[in-house]
Known about the structure:
- The protein is of the alpha/beta class.
- It is built from eight helices and nine strands.
- A hairpin with a 2-residue loop joins strand 8 and strand 9.
- Adenine (ADE) binds next to strand 5.
Amino acid sequence: xxxxxxxxxxxxxxxxxxxxxxxxxxxxxxxxxxxxxxxxxxxxxxxxxxxxxxxxxxxxxxxxxxxxxxxxxxxxxxxxxxxxxxxxxxxxxxxxxxxxxxxxxxxxxxxxxxxxxxxxxxxxxxxxxxxxxxxxxxxxxxxxxxxxxxxxxxxxxxxxxxxxxxxxxxxxxxxxxxxxxxxxxxxxxxxxxxxxxxxxxxxxxxxxxxxxxxxxxxxxxxxxxxxxxxxxxxxxx
Length: 237
Ligand code: ADE
């Protein structure tokens, strides 16, 4: 199984570099499950000020990332072969859901474009970007943190990355239900007891209790999830 390769193109590369060195994503790189390269968009500017943004045509507030450095960088990332996906992180993109993450985790090469300022030139979106993804209905100051979110969601699904092979499958959302509550020692914490069933050793009863908890939690917190069958959302592709 070849390792996945992820290129992150960023206006502020330092925002993503350090977080990628830690935890599951850091260990996945060390173990060779994924290679991640962070590109400083400014390195692809050709003028002496290394300018990557400019005023919007038509006026208005904010700066727009220029097409030339961005496309040069996207092309450099694909100099050997086209990527499977060129993802632009943007609040007006497709809301990120687990089925999309599952699908992208099968790719060999994903490029992520983290914009800044007022966004990127629309022509890059039209002709070079293949997927536009939002991580939620709120506006962040750039796409760097959303790119980290997508990297984390993808990498933990790669074969061999999670120690317990079943744990990615039992996550909230993998089967359309939220997770059951989790407890660890002590059995009594400041007077609050762990549910007896979890200490009973009866695994059939424990599974049943967890299923009931998951359904009940989903019904009260996210009734919208109960209307969606897993995978429905990607059916139209
Ligand atoms: N860039 C700024 N806000 C964003 C969001 N919510 N999702 C993805 N990219 C973004």
